[in-house]
């Protein structure tokens, strides 16, 4: 039996990764960001693509005491003998509210672009027209526009402009970013309020523009957050806060009987 793979193989004396000798052609030569992008796309990336990719990784690595970080710290407190459990607990929290926005935005933008018949827009006015239609359709369907708004950065997400500027500098400000920027310009006309383009969303757009498929974007966000979680775990080992989190909630828990729909108490 044979199981074909383009990733890697090994034998008693060598390891092959992506068709190269790992020990002699990659270690100390290929950076981790380049390798991760190479593995995800199965094509060796350009240095411009690597710079954008690593910028997005840095932008998503940590955002303070988010639920994912708290979950990792509490799991470490519960099972200090299994650091993999703490890492996994944090990564499992990557969903529609945290980290998953990177994938959701990339999928949304790709879906809108796929509806364009003929050449893509060229001017800002043409992009704005496409963005208006996309936002209006989302609103009519009762769906949120992914990548809009942030629970902390109510006015401006400081990551957004930096990533767009870097992508532009590297010649990689493509259709996903152009459409996302247009959404930022026009969404208030449809939604009646102005929301910032968030960093997770612009990260998804930038990753899509360098060739990553939407199905992989959450994986990239999780790769980035793994570094942040490792930092939280390292800090927790030195200066633990999980015992206080647990004690604060546990000591302030108050029993309250549930009320059913027929207003009868359930005990």
Could you report the average pLDDT, rounded to the nearest whole number? 94
Largest sheet: 3 strands, antiparallel
Measured distance between first and last alpha carbons: 60 Å
CATH top level class name of one domain: Mainly Alpha
**Rg over alpha carbons:** 22 Å
Q: What structural class do you assign from the helix and strand content?
A: mainly alpha
CATH architecture of one domain: Orthogonal Bundle
> What overall form do the CA principal axes indicate?
flat
Strand content: under 5%
For the biggest β-sheet, the strand order reads: 1-2-3
Low-confidence runs of at least 5 consecutive residues: none
At the fourth level of CATH, the homologous superfamily of one domain is Cytochrome P450-Terp, domain 2
Write down the secondary-structure element order.
EEEHHHHHHHHHHHHEE
Q: What's the total helix number?
A: 12
CATH fold node name of one domain: Cytochrome p450-Terp, domain 2
- The total count of strands amounts to 5
The level of helicity is 55-70%
